[in-house]
Design goal:
By secondary structure, the chain is mostly helical. It has one domain. Helix content is 74%, strand content 0%. The protein has 14 helices and no strands.
Length: 333
Amino acid sequence: MAADELTFARAGDAPSRGASNAARQTVPPSSIARAWGRLVLLIWQRQVRAPWLVWVSIGLLALSALLVYITTINNRWTMGHWRVPRRGPTLAQQLDLATALGQVPWSESARGLHFAALGAWTTLTFRTSGLAIFSTFIVFALFTTFLLPLWTLSFAAEALGREREGQTLIWMVVRPIPRPAIYVAAYIAVLPWCLGFNLGGLSLLCWLGGDPGRRALALYWPAALLGTLAFAALFHLFAATFRRAGVVALLYAFFLETVAGNMPGLFKRLSLSFYTRCLMFDAGSTFGIGPDRPWIFRPVDGATAAWVLALATVTLLAVGMVVFTRSEYLDVK
């Protein structure tokens, strides 16, 4: 460690902007670029030492995967096990009976009408319903509103938060790198972890879900990608603003994203998961997939949702750079 770094570390205070600017003026731009790249690599490598939030996320992924697997092997993704009426035969049994009626020696026109109706019923009961049920319970209710924010904050809230907790943030700010560049470097470093966990977790759940899950993955992965970018920018801002960023991010994810995001009214439009779900509803509209009560949920169209998520990502990053630049972080011991 250089002499000036030791001085700052012993003083326990963040270096002044004047000292940082003076240090940068003596370093060529090429060296600053190399130092920035090394900083990105270092922060990325530090995420390997998983904090407790990551272990919680891994446990939730395992439980969710087990739930999906059990549902799949019991063939519960379709409407075949539904009973209409409640104590009557299942729809699968009724479909078998309707198929047997096709052997009755009807006229050719009656037989053609019968098999046309039977084909439509089969598609609705065993194919379209599978995608709709998997989307509603796994993608919309479980993944988008609960797992996606939690998995993202497990990494995004730790990039700067762990440096503050470990008293190593001083090492980052004394580098001859502009503070906005340090902030962006930390965001870029944790982004592969966030995307890998979210898209990888969604892919695992969809793969275990069989045919409905694989069709759902093809429809919803772009929305999961944009949602991850926005959530990562938000929780990265929390890390630059709050001392206990992980706790604050958990409270936000539970109350605003999980609870308030599913309440009636327009308050849910303040949550990022609302626009992620709207983008998913737009992708699934071809198959008749949408909110259960659209007059209460009031979704926006897919293009608007995509623009909101993209603008939210850029805006949150810009605000975070300003906060990180103006903060002295005097809580470092």
